[in-house]
Amino acid sequence: MARIAVAEGVRWIVATPHQEGWSATACQRIQAAVQNLQRELNLNGIPLSLSSGVELLVTHTLLQTSGDERVHTLNGSRYVLLELPAFDYPLYTAEVIFSLQLRGLVPILAHPERNVIIQDDISRIVRLVQRGVLVQLSVDSLSPSADRDVRRCAQELLRRGLVHLLASDAHNAGRRAPRLAAGVRAAARIVGLERAQAMVTSVPEAILGDRELDIEMMTPPSPRRWWQRLFDTRDDSEA
Ligand SMILES: [Fe+2]
Fold first, then answer.
1. Which domains does the chain have, with CATH numbers?
2. What pTM was estimated for this model as a whole?
3. How far is the CA of 19 from the centre of ligand 1 (A)?
4. What distance in angstroms lies between residue 189's CA and the mean position of ligand 1's atoms?
C-alpha cells in the first residue's frame, strides 16, 4: 500500500482506522502501530510520512465529554474525522457536531456521498458546511465504476462547492488501494485543477499543521454555466 501511494504521488498519509466512541487506549494503540510502520518504511527507504487519527462514527456517546478528545483527532490537531452510518442520518447528528465544535474541534465529514439520506437531500450538507463543517470526498466515489447514486452525489457536492478534501479511503493494496491521481483529475473537471489539487495538498497540510482554514475562501463564487460545462466535457474527451 505504501509503495502504491508513493507511485501515486502521495507523500503523507494519515491512518484513520474506524473507531466507535471515545477511547484513548484505542488511539494510543493506533499511534504505536503507525510509529512501528513508519520505522519499517524508513528502513525500506520508502519516502512516505505517516500520521495517525481515527474515523469516528457519529454516535450519541460523542455528546459525552471524554476529556481526551484531542487524542482522537488528525495528527493531534483540532480536526476530527467523522463518518455517518451508510443508511441512516441520526437525529442527533447536528447536536453531536455542535458539541464537538463547542469543545474547540473542527469536524470533517468523511464520504457523505455514500449516505443514502444525503443523496436524496444535499441541503443537509449545505447546512453543515454553513456551520463550519469540512467535507471529505472519497476519490473512489468519482470513479466510473462507483455506484451511480454515490457518484452523482459526489459530483453534485463538488459542483456546489461543498467539498474541501479528497481522500483515498484505502483499506488494502487491491480494490481499495491508496490511489488519488485519477480522483483528483475527475474532481478537476468539475472544480478546476487548482482547487482539486488544493484538496490533496494545501488543505490537508493546513489541517495536519493544525492551522485555521478559511472555509469561505474555499467556496467557489457561483455554479458553472451550462456552456462552461460544455467545455469541461470537451476537455474530458481530450484528456
Ligand atoms: Fe468511512
1. 54-238 (3.20.20.140)
2. 0.90
3. 10
4. 25
CA of 83 to the centre of ligand 1 (A): 6
pLDDT digits (tens, 9 = 90+) for 168-205: 999 999 999 999 999 999 999 999 999 999 999 999 99
Alpha-helical (H) ranges within the chain are 2-7, 24-43, 93-102, 116-120, 123-130, 148-159, 181-191, 193-198, 202-208, 226-238
Please name the residues in contact with 95: beta carbons below 8 A apart, sequence gap of 6 or more.
63
Largest CA distance in the chain: 54
17-30 pLDDT tens trace? 999 999 999 999 99
Q: How far is the CA of 237 from the centre of ligand 1 (A)?
A: 32
Tell me the CA distances in angstroms from 162 to 59, 110, 179, one per residue in order: 23, 12, 22
DSSP calls for 157-172: HHHTT---EEE----S
| Per-residue DSSP letter, 17 | -
- Amino acid making up residue 65: T
